Every structure is written in C-alpha cells, then in structure tokens.
Amino acid sequence: MKRGCGFAARPDLPAGAQMSKLEVFEPAMCCPTGLCGVNVNPVLVQFNADLQWLTGHDVDVVRHGLGHDAAAFAANPDVVREMQTGIDRLPIVMADGKIISIGAYPSRTQLIQKIGLKIPAAEKPHIRAGACGCKPGEC
C-alpha cells in the first residue's frame, strides 16, 4: 500500500487535478493488514487485493489500524465522532476526506463508484448476476 501524506498529480488528469486518497481506519488486528495467523478472514484477503488494485490505478491508499496507528484515529474528528457510538463502527473508509463506508469493507465496485474512478470497460470488474456468475440469458 502506498503510504503518503497527501495528493500527487496524475499524468492522465488535467493540470491542477489531484489523485484520490483513500484512508481506511480498521479495528485492532494481529498485523496492519489482518492477513496473518491461521484463520485469515477472506473478506480481508479480498479487500487487501482491492486496495492493491486501487494503488495500481493511482489511488493513494493509507491504512490505519487501531492497534498500530491510534494517533491517526484521534487526529481525525469524523472518525472520533463515529467511534463515540462504538467500536463496531469500524472499519471506517474515507475517500478524499469524506466517509464513504462505516462498519463494513466495501467491494471493489463500491470503491470505484465512491471514488469516481473512470475505468476502461476492459478492466471493469465482472458483476455476477446469476448463481453461476453469468448475466441473465448468457448461460
């Protein structure tokens, strides 16, 4: 994951435009990504892959774990406000300083939509419509 302190210019954006920044505030885990130990949560595996994919599309991704980076939680008034109602509000995902998800890890498709990424059709994730994964009438 990229660990940056701000925005950087993207060559594919107009002059003066900025890349998106995604911040993830997560509960305390055994390691910063939660991908450790014997029983790894498959949701975390997928979310980690989605974050890596976003970094490949020039999104600045920063993860803050409650057990590893508590100061980042305290420094963000929106996160502090959400945490006052309970730890179950985590994870909190912010895009460009605005909360886009509370209490669950968003999917890649949701992240793309919330960030407003323009992804070429060839790269868009396949959305399963039926039990087999095909679109209706394509089986």
Describe it for me?
There is one protein chain. The protein has a single domain, classed as Glutaredoxin (3-Layer(aba) Sandwich), CATH 3.40.30. It has helices spanning 42-55, 70-74, 77-83, 108-115, and strands at residues 21-26, 60-65, 92-95, 98-102. Strand 1, helix 1 and strand 2 (60-65) form a beta-alpha-beta unit. The chain is α+β, with helices and mostly antiparallel strands and 139 residues long. A 4-stranded mixed β-sheet has the order 2-1-3-4, with helices on both faces. The chain contains 4 helices and 4 strands, in the order βαβααββα. Residues 1-17 have low confidence and may be disordered. This is Arsenical resistance operon trans-acting repressor ArsD. It comes from Paraburkholderia bryophila.
Short note summarizing the structure:
This protein is of the alpha+beta class. The chain has 4 helices and 4 strands.
Tell me the fraction of residues in β-strands, as a range: 15-25%
> According to CATH, what is the topology?
Glutaredoxin
The number of helical elements comes to 4
**What is the CATH superfamily label?**
Glutaredoxin
**What is the strand tally?**
4
Distance between the amino and carboxyl termini: 38 Å
**Which shape, going by the Cα principal axes?**
globular
Write down the CATH class: Alpha Beta
How much helix is in the residues?
Answer: 10-25%
Low-confidence stretches: 1-17
Instruction: Based on the coordinates given, report the CATH architecture.
Output: 3-Layer(aba) Sandwich
Mean pLDDT: 80
Integer tally of domains: 1
Q: Give, in order, the helices and strands.
A: EHEHHEEH
Rg result:
16 Å
Strand order of the largest sheet: 2-1-3-4
Protein name: Arsenical resistance operon trans-acting repressor ArsD
GO molecular function, one term: DNA binding
Organism: Paraburkholderia bryophila
